[in-house]
Amino acid sequence: MTDRTRTGAPVPSTDPRTGAVRAHPAREAGPADVDRAVTAAARTLDALADRPRRAALLHAAADALDAARPEILATADAETALGEARLTGELARTTHQLRSFARTVADGGYLEVRIDRADPATGRPDLRRTKTPLGVAAVFAAGNFPLAFSVPGGDTASALAAGCPVVVKAHPGHPETGELCARLLRGAAERVGLPADVLGTVHGFAAGTHLVQHPLTAAVGFTGSLRGGRALHDLAAARPRPIPFHGELGSLNPVVVTERAAATRAAEIGTGLAASYTLGQGQYCTKPGLVLVPAARPALDALERAATTAAAQAPAAPLLDPRIRENYLAGAAHRAALPGVEVLLAPGPAPTADAPLAVRPGLLAVAAEDLHDDLLDECFGPLTVLVRYHDDTDLHAVLARLPGTLTATLHHAPDEPPARTLPLLARLAPLAGRLVLNAWPTGVAVTPAMQHGGPYPAATTPTTSVGTSAIHRWLRPVTYQDAPPDLLPAELRD
Fold this sequence. Notes:
Blueprint: E1 13-14, E2 21-22, H1 31-42, H2 45-48, H3 51-67, H4 69-80, H5 84-107, E3 114-116, E4 127-133, E5 136-140, H6 154-162, E6 166-169, H7 175-191, E7 199-202, H8 205-213, E8 217-223, H9 226-238, E9 245-248, E10 254-257, H10 259-278, E11 290-294, H11 299-312, H12 322-336, E12 342-345, E13 348-349, E14 359-360, E15 362-367, E16 383-389, H13 392-399, E17 405-411, H14 418-428, E18 432-437, E19 475-481
Parallel strand pairs: 5-6, 5-8, 6-7, 8-9, 10-11, 10-17, 11-16, 15-16, 17-18
Antiparallel strand pairs: 1-2, 3-4, 4-19, 12-15, 13-14
């Protein structure tokens, strides 16, 4: 990974609607800055061991974010153009996550305590197992969720809940939002009697490298690109003492539509697809990026017509930042020009008076036998590809080529026999962390049963980054053998 360090250089905050640069006091961190942040965080480990105070911190953080709602929404919208409605929902999700983890901490079940008392008859010793925090967690903020997957987001909430202090590598797309949320969380820590340094932030490309390599960093949480995530993953593995790297690196989120489903509700499926892949300008990690549809007409015509019409009516809007916009336009144009690809709706710039950098969605179609490898790579933004299959041979040949993914969706008819749908689900299950039936994958509920992760490259470890089970990424099991009661952690005592 190239060192692009410019220690002390200002981190610009860019208006994604116009490209104008907004002044902001954040500065790029050098090795010494990263060392100070990680070292300060490590010193708070003992304080975070107080479980009731940890739960209080998470509640106080949620309250602080709610109290600062107007300022947070205005700042985040200025840096992401996501709009007040979307950001209001995201802030609610963020505070819900924090409070959910507070309840998890208070309950204590996440420690998965196991006690096997001594058995003199067999000679078995007294064994008591619990979980203990790994240490300082490095969290990389995501560009597409300035709140829920960034400084105050799920990675931070789950790590703090586990008892791990956090240093966040703030995202360059929303540095002001990141610093605002960091101040609120640090203030919440102080109000409940914890050191502010349970949470720190650093900025800059090189700061991320130094953060992963710092000897006191114990684990990493990352949401971002395949290229950047894989580079950081390899750094974590190459350390003298390798550490866990929990990365979410990209996802195609395939959809399979059966012939019977297309024949009975083609328009409904087409309209639903358009709503899903254009939601948030296609900047969700669960956006359906490849849709396998039966080639039989007239159902195919009805589905494609409905999808094209609905997607064309989606309002033009800017993407998260000018760089993402350039990558989307270039990537969409490249895919549209591949041999055998039909452009049903042309992607491209769509400037408006308020947003000269706005873009419109695209919809491409290709026969299964012409499916190019480049169409199997995620294109971040409002673009999806319809793959027309003629029979099960076509369908299974495409599925065999797909990489690991966060979600896989099956649209089928209610009266289709299990003998038809069960084999399809069995084929999709090894590909994805979440299987969706007759719905769409965008939208991730924050619940204990949620799995947000999948086989590589969707994720680098078989864990989840959403839901209360995410706490286990920051913990390791430890067993006490024949320990006197007064030397046991409280949760292991009789």
